[in-house]
Amino acid sequence: MVGGLVVLFGAYATWRQLRVSQDGLRATQEGYVTDRFSRAVDQLGSDKLDVRIGGLHALWRIAEQSARDREAIISIQAAYLRTHLPWPPAGPESPAADMPINEIAPLETRAADAQVALTALGVLCQHREQSWVNLSITDLRRADCDGLWFPRSTSTVLAWRRRVCTTPI
Fold first, then answer.
1. pTM over 0.70
2. Mean of the pLDDT values across residues 134-159?
3. Which end of the chain is more exposed for a tag (fewer CB within 10 A), N or C?
4. Percent helix, strand and coil across the chain, each rounded to 5?
């Protein structure tokens, strides 16, 4: 009888220790994702193109691995596009609003980071419940939209699809 109680107590203690270990591992993983997320967002503010592209790719990867963070990352990437490619175009390096479309460099050439953000959005939107992304007031002329997925997008987005994408969505 005493032996049975010792075995039962040992089994309970082992189960409890396993639960504590699993909770600790989960907390460590969450902390790791949070750290990666913070570093990637910091990289978006860099003056260096390659660092911004690295940050966008890091966010994309986090979004693919963490459904919990996916919506926030989609919002960040859409905001990135709206702020870096405003419509009407602003800044000396931006093509004029009335410039013929064939005279504008492809988005991947004139703003490679923006093309990465757009591609990530198109891929990540395949795995989401919400059916729209706010890309209004964004200059996406000559964007490469090959393979991108924006289901039930707003009429503004549908209009830029027809107007700006070099390949159909």
1. yes
2. 72
3. N
4. 65, 0, 35
